[in-house]
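Researcher: Please translate sequence to structure tokens.
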Amino acid sequence: MRVMQSSACSSCAAARMCRSGESRERLIDVATKHASEFRVGEPVVLVATAQQSRMAVMLAYVLPLFLLLAALFVVRGFAGNDGLAALSALLVVSLYYGVLYCLRGRLSRNFRFDVSSDDGNRIIESNKTK
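Model: Translation complete:
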């Protein structure tokens, strides 16, 4: 499935002048046994559960921030060197995202989307997690 990701201000008239108005195309794989009910190019809505959304925010933003701050303060406390602390914090976050990338297959089984038509008439619950 091809998705056009755009920022909230992409419809603004000044968006061309500012980097906030960028939009880019993303590919998302949605496995559903109801694929025959949709046409190529048909606008659809992908829906994730609130729990999945919270987990995604936790994995992508909250946990790396905590790791960055923890590494920063621990190394700063033991070594007393700001440069080493900053470098260590960035290394820890880089390693975290590397591990997350290696586990993307396992994580993709936990993050599933429901698909519905853009007009809301048809809702296909295709990927409920068990």
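Researcher: Any highlights?
Model: Residues 1-30 form one domain.
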